[in-house]
Amino acid sequence: MHEVSDFADPSRISAVVDGLRSVDGAQVSTDTAFSSLTTLRLGGTPSAVVRCSTTDAVAQVVRRLDDENVPLLIVGGGSNLVVADQPGALVAVVIEADAVTMSTRGHGLESTAAIIEAEAGAVWDEIVQMSVDAGFGGLECLSGIPGSAGATPVQNVGAYGAEVSQVLDAVQLYDRASGEVEWVSPESLELSYRYSNLKFTDRAVVLAVRFELSIDGMSVPLRYGELARRLGVDEAEAAAGEIRRPSDQVREVVLELRRGKGMVLEPEDRDTWSAGSFFTNPIIDESEVETVRAKVAERRGADEAVTMPVFPAGAGQEGKAKLSAAWLIERAGFPKGYPGQGAPARLSTKHTLALTNRGESGDGTPTTADDLVALARDIRAGVHAAFGVTLEPEPVWVGVSIDG
Ligand SMILES: Cc1cc2nc3c(=O)[nH]c(=O)nc-3n(C[C@H](O)[C@H](O)[C@H](O)COP(=O)(O)OP(=O)(O)OC[C@H]3O[C@@H](n4cnc5c(N)ncnc54)[C@H](O)[C@@H]3O)c2cc1C
Description:
This protein is an alpha+beta fold. The chain has helices at residues 10-20, 55-67, 124-133, 225-230, 235-240, 247-260, 289-300, 302-305, 325-331, 369-387; strands at residues 26-29, 48-52, 72-75, 81-83, 91-95, 100-105, 113-119, 158-159, 162-163, 168-175, 181-184, 204-213, 283-285, 310-312, 320-323, 345-347, 355-357, 396-398.
């Protein structure tokens, strides 16, 4: 496998990178920092950044780098990346191929579904908007998630009770071991909560994705209490049934809810200089739930312990329960905005689950990736000490680790 931490000789990398300048659709730069490629706006300068405007260029560039054993990182919108201040010898391959086509399965009144096919570099939220405008249903709950279409299967993006796996029809992969390009079924990716077998591996690059959507303009069934409530649907009814609403209405409410939590990118709003939810919701054995609850009772009192959110972990996770990372973080003594004014990296003031870059510390020193990593370690250690639960980071870490 190709590990980004592999030793690599800078002069050899530089020769390989020079060779990439002749690839059609590839643009090479050697002075672009990850801070300009990531939504956290952190991370130093890699050996090179290669922007690829076609999927052919992506495959060619990755093939050449792999042939020469040059460590590389695929980058879409950079919204799920924590990159070191010194990322080391590494080439960032940024996918900018963004063609999108829409069609239907069957013709006219015989149509049964809408099909959207997008190259990996297409901006995800533009696809959602396009689908809703066209009167299709299926993507609306995933409105406002930053990043690229190609990254959506990588961690099976999800929000407001929906996951991309519900509507994913096929994924086009460039297989880095065989050099083959092929369409594969979603089943082969083992999609589950914020996971696929593409995440944390270098086995393949997503070149394109295809979604099958409904043509009746209605959303997927509403499964998220707060969203259902805002749409005037009884929460219990929504949880039990198949309540759907027009996709444009659902998109509007989802965007409103997300903005309130700083989960839509706004350049002026430092609460959105983040990687979204920084930790996944912990999944533990059902038998451990009462042990955690007892620790909450010890620390916060019995009244609070009974309110601890516990959800079923989902399909394929029988015997497991899902806890709320945000709830545990707050109860462990990390309020919104922690550790407070002047700190270069802080929890969002709108949502405890987002770690944010405030641009600089109180004395004007620019925020570094190390500042953010220190905050992540602090929170993880605090939650573990308080409740015995180990939080796992959701983003992909490059050149740096939460374990120290
Ligand atoms: C404000 C905010 C809110 C967010 N809300 C959500 C949310 O509600 N739900 C959710 O699931 N996520 C959320 N995220 C996380 C993030 O937006 C998603 O994970 C998104 O899909 C990442 O896309 P990207 O193109 O930015 O990926 P990047 O950050 O560029 O890459 C992430 C990982 O995927 C790999 N990758 C990217 N593209 C490809 C490709 N084409 N082929 C193979 N590997 C690839 C990269 O190598 C890297 O390992 C949020 C992030 C932010 C900043």
